[in-house]
Design brief:
The chain has 171 residues and is mostly helical. The protein is built from seven helices and two strands, in the order H-H-H-H-E-E-H-H-H. Helix 3 crosses helix 4. The longest helix has 27 residues.
Length: 171
């Protein structure tokens, strides 16, 4: 087998990362019927307790419109409940239901959570080196100005027939 150039090895490593994200996203959808952003919203709704959709969208770094769509799908599945405030009818609170808590107890972790845990085990200088290198890679790909949420998700993934994803939401 021919020896790959350093450049080709770098491109292959990037492809492996993209593939790992894609496989994890497919596993979430096919194995648990949920996309990464949906799982992130459900996890944050649990962590934050009764929370406004605005605070939830900030916590998961997704647009308000995307979170609204996700909340609709989670509510249809009985995983969250949205309640209007008695004192202010414009104010809505999101709360995880017992079915949502049960779902979370059996759901896998998000890929970025496992990755973040592995990173935290590294020395400070190693994390700084990885950060610097990845920022340079993003720059070389003209991607350093692209806004990216802190969720490791791939492009559109076919979902089961009940249409779990919506506009602006990929795996």
């Amino acid at each position: 087998m021919p020896v790959l150039s350093n450049e080709d090895q770098i491109v292959a490593a990037i492809r492996q990362i993209i593939r790992a994200v894609d496989l994890h996203s497919r596993h979430l959808v096919n194995g648990h019927g949920m996309t990464g952003p949906q799982l992130a919203v459900l996890q944050e709704a649990k962590r934050l307790g009764p929370v406004s959709p605005t605070a939830l969208s900030r916590a998961v770094h997704l647009s308000q419109a995307t979170v609204t769509g996700i909340l609709q799908r989670l509510e249809r599945r009985g995983l969250i409940r949205r309640e209007q405030s008695v004192s202010d009818r414009r104010s809505v609170s999101v709360q995880t239901t017992s079915a949502g808590l049960e779902f979370l107890s059996g759901s896998p972790s998000l890929l970025q959570d496992r990755f973040r845990d592995a990173l935290s085990a590294l020395e400070d200088w190693e994390r700084l080196q990885i950060l610097s290198t990845l920022q340079r890679v993003a720059s070389l790909m003209d991607a350093d100005e692209i806004d990216a949420a802190p969720h490791l998700t791939s492009g559109d993934i076919p979902t089961p027939s009940d249409d779990l994803s919506g506009p602006g939401e990929s795996s």
